[in-house]
Design goal:
Elements: E1 2-4, E2 7-9, H1 37-64, H2 76-95, H3 101-126, H4 145-169
Length: 187
């Protein structure tokens, strides 16, 4: 046995002219790791969006019983439960593997759910629009910890979902300003 980088190696495996694949290193398998920077960015954006949607769903489920007391045909408790279910469905869609257009749709779905929840929360915080139709007055002019958690989760999920959607719209390999730099020239 000889030494190669401080590890035991068989004779001949340390030759600089050896052919074949390098010996496999011990550790985690690389099959689940992203193969490019774009894939790593998409994986990170999916993780951020899923985390934000799960936080949003948890807070809405936790607060649903508190807001279920409003006298209306459709009270805020019902709407909170619907929002939680939609946020969990969007998170699940982002977790499941998808390709091409389906991935864009899942990022789009995550964006619509998170951004609409954030918009409604901000409107209900700063604008008193009153009761309308079967809905009660949503005006809630205070911030409290769970509301802040939901706002941060919705904002993170919105931003990550939008960034993932846009990143998937940009085809890899395109060049800016004309795109001629990457093509072979014909004589």
């Amino acid at each position: 046995m000889t030494q190669h980088h401080g590890r035991p190696a068989t004779a001949g495996s340390t030759s600089p002219h050896a052919t074949g694949p390098p010996p496999r290193q011990a550790g985690a398998p690389r099959s689940w790791l992203p193969r490019s920077g774009r894939a790593a960015a998409l994986a990170a954006l999916r993780l951020i969006a899923v985390a934000g949607l799960v936080i949003d769903a948890f807070v809405h489920l936790d607060l649903a019983s508190t807001y279920a007391e409003a006298p209306a045909a459709i009270n805020e408790g019902v709407l909170f439960r619907v929002e939680a279910v939609l946020a969990l469905l969007a998170a699940l869609a982002l977790i499941l593997p998808a390709r091409g257009r389906a991935r864009r749709l899942t990022f789009g779905f995550g964006f619509v759910i998170a951004a609409s929840a954030l918009a409604l929360m901000l409107v209900s915080r700063y604008v008193d629009i009153g009761a309308f139709g079967p809905f009660p007055d949503f005006y809630d002019p205070v911030w409290f910890p769970e509301k802040l958690w939901a706002a941060f989760g919705e904002a993170a999920a919105s931003a990550a979902s939008l960034a993932g959607f846009v990143l998937l719209l940009i085809r890899p390999g395109l060049r800016a300003a004309g795109g001629d730099e990457g093509r072979p020239r014909s004589s």
